[in-house]
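Note to self: keep these together.
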Amino acid sequence: MARTSDRRRGSIYLGLAAGLFTMSGALVGGYVVTGERSPSPRVAAADAAMPTTGVDGALATAVDQALDGKVIVSAAGRERTLTWRELAVSVDPAELPYAARRSDVVATLASAGALPIRIDRLAAAKALSGLKATVDRAPTNAYLDLETKTIHDDTAGFAIDVFASLDRIEAAAKSGAPRVELVGLAVPAAITRAKLGIDDISHVLGTFRTTFPVGDKDRNFNLKLAASKLNGKVLAPGVEFSFNETVGDRTEKEGYKIAHVITAGEMVDGLAGGTCQISTTLFGASFFAGLEIVKTTNHSRPSTYVTMGLDATVVWPNTDLKMKNPYDFPVVVHYRVARGEAVVEILGQARPWDEIAFERKVIDSTPYTTEERLDEALPVGFEAQDQSGFDGYKLVRYRKYYKGGVEVKQDKWTVTYRPVTEYLRKGTNPDPDLIAPTVKPPHTPKAPGGGSGRIVQ
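Structure:
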């Protein structure tokens, strides 16, 4: 009778082991990540207390052997095949007595999600790091491609939520599932298309171009630095734009360099020289785009790089260029400074006007005066022009809007330029051995031909 009981108990042990191995054999095979994981002290201590005899011991042995079975771990279409042991799953001694009493059929335990296992969460998280590195992807921000006049949408990123996935792994291990889908999180882009504030940049409402000598490196640097603050600036409907607020103070700390500026009607060296060409070019593009001109100040003297009547000077903080977007759609500034050209485009939806024209009419002029500057370091008889003279002008500037060949609207301003004093430098030193230096004539803007001018876009 005792022998019959022993044989029956042995059959139960073999049945438990066979059932567990049958379960593990049903797991789908695949790529296996190799590498041994050292058990934590807590897991090692619990394993040391695991029963090795009786029903509990047989079940512990069978479950431990089944941990070499494979499971497919997937996320966002990527898969990796691991063993349960590689996922830090081990036998849970505390659950063994309950599991052994509940059923001697392993399939029943698995179907009830009651296999006696536990998971070392920190070790499991480390095991998932390899899959996370291949699956996680960063979001991409929406951006304006001003060169091609297209808008690129944002795309959300993806990340495996490792610690949220551990509960799924544990549940899958308790039920002997052949695969487990990890928890994934969508990672939103920092800049969405909606945050760009504009949804159409396919049309050029207005454009303007000025030129500069490429050899003046410091001035060119200032041009590019100031333009970089404006490129991509979006003007929402009805919103006022300030050049000074957008570009900021032009200080040495901000990187600006010494270059030519106009001060009190005279061309001198000053910090951030060239910034006015950036404001002037922007003003020209905004003029032909039909933006509302809120505040603008012309130079004290005509500029060499733009037709008279289309310049706009700026000085931090009070002399500003201000404009407002009059349309019911946003527009954006596209600024490019390269190869001796400063070019601005105002982009957005199509403007409601077929043509916008600039017209200028000189209504008065004031002759310039000449002043002599005596120089003892130069020989008698030497004379050179420090600054060319230029007559002062009072003119009327028009902006005319056309639709279907008919003028439908007009803006009008009175613009005044003071006369530019001519400065002549004369030598006073009688020393006959002094050699007169070679001088280049100053660069002088051209006088307005006939007093009128017209540009149409």
